[in-house]
Amino acid sequence: MRNCYLSRDYKEINGAGNKAKTDMEAIMSDMGFVNVGFRQTRYKNVVLAFLITFSGIVKAAFSLKKGDLLFLQYPLKKYFTLICKVAHLRGARVAVLIHDLGSFRRKKLSVPQEIKRIGHADYVIALNPTMREWLKDNHCALPIGSLGIWDYLSETHCPSSVQFPDTCKVVYAGALNRRKNSFLYQWGNYIKNYRVSLYGGGLDVASMENARCFDIKGFVLSEQLIASADGHFGLVWDGDSVRTCSGNFGEYLQFNNPHKTSLYIRCGLPVIIWEKAALAPFIVQNGIGFCISSLEELDEKLRLVTPEQYTQMRNNVLRMSGLLEQGHFFRQAAREAVRTLRGFAGSVSEQIPQP
Fold first, then answer.
1. For residue 161, how far is the Cα from the chain centroid?
2. Which residues, in sequence order, are CB contacts of 190 under 8 Å at separation 6+?
3. pLDDT of 40 strictly over 70
4. Which pLDDT score is estimated for 38?
5. 2: how many CB neighbours lie within 10 A of its CB?
6. Among 136, 171, 218, 289, who pairs with 231 as Cys (CB 3.0-4.6 Å)?
7. Domains plus CATH for the chain?
8. Which pLDDT belongs to residue 42?
9. What is the pLDDT of residue 32?
10. Which helix (H) or strand (E) holds 342?
């Protein structure tokens, strides 16, 4: 009996923002999982890429054996249902790690359609307890685990110590355009006693209110950001408003795990997060930041942070960063999936090495 995974399809490989999936595959490989598809390869020719991807699906179909456990990363475009059905025909079982739900932000599926599609698997790893409860409430009958937070692989390390200054800097990294984050263009009106470092592309500086409060860094590779992030906290906030996280992108924070949260942690930055975000309890329980209900209150919240409190938060962040670097959270979730689908707890440690 083998633990297997299938590499991603060409559209995701050629697309941006796929580090989370790449990292999960690297962790699975390190855990001894077998890739039953082809190795990841980038193709400029779309037709060739499609044919290679489909060939990988066919290869996987004939590679699976009775008793195998196949891990998939969801969504897997149009192939997900097909792969699950083929796996079952071959006598294998399927565990799926959810990255994104099409029935939320993109609205490409209705909720019943999404639940039906996911239901072709045998086990689900949700991103967090809130997403797990949402799946249960919407009649997903599969056993459901929880990831917790995205692991973030990198050999780069942040500075070991940072002095807490009189004037804090808050880092915001990601898409800076109006479509995703129009709050950025209002935020300057509410900044008084701190500054903001903006990392990313798509910013329309001319449309920003009180732009002098921002240090605009442009696009920076993640390795460079980890080594040299110019700030003391990282902000997790999305949507249309400074008063709450609204709109499709903002409201989705109530269910998803923004990958930038893990990036901030790897940068050594304590996290400031919307209080209704799914990751807010994780941030508070692990002492790696604090929550806010509105960006209007951030000045006062930062004013109340003492140097001692900041040092404690940052020490906690550095410990958490070490776990993300090891792939701790996916390894833990994968072991639970194996225990459940294999139907026994014994010898799991032999099947999947401990970190």
1. 26
2. 242, 295, 296, 298, 299
3. no
4. 52
5. 16
6. 171
7. 3-151+327-351 (3.40.50.2000), 168-325 (3.40.50.2000)
8. 58
9. 95
10. helix 328-342
Contact 271, 236 (CB under 8 A): yes
| Reported pTM | 0.91
Q: What do you get for the CA distance between the two ends of the chain, in Å?
A: 21
Express each pLDDT in 189-199 by its tens digit: 999 999 999 99
Nearest to 77 by CA among 133, 18, 24: 18
Query: Contact 33/4 with Cβ under 8 angstroms?
Result: yes
Letter string b/e over residues 220-253, b meaning 16 or more CB atoms within 10 A of that residue's CB: bebeebbbebebbbbbbbbbbbbebbebebbbbb
Mean pLDDT of the chain: 89
Number of H helices, E strands in the chain: 16, 12
Sign of torsion over alpha carbons 87, 89, 93, 98: positive
Q: How far is CA 130 from the centre of its chain?
A: 14
Q: What is the pLDDT of residues 281-322, one digit of tens each?
A: 999 999 999 999 999 999 999 999 999 999 999 999 999 999
What are the structure tokens assigned to 197, written together? 């470092």
313: nearest Cα among 301, 300, 326, 297: 301
Tokens encoding 149: 């937070």
Q: In the numeric block, which tokens belong to residue 217?
A: 């860094």
Parallel, antiparallel or unpaired: strands 168-173 and 194-199 = parallel
CA distances from 186 to 167, 175, 183 (A): 21, 16, 5
- CB atoms < 10 A from the CB of 255, how many? 20
Using CA atoms, how far apart are residues 355 and 338, in angstroms rounded to an integer? 16
* Residue appearing with tokens 């082809």: 38
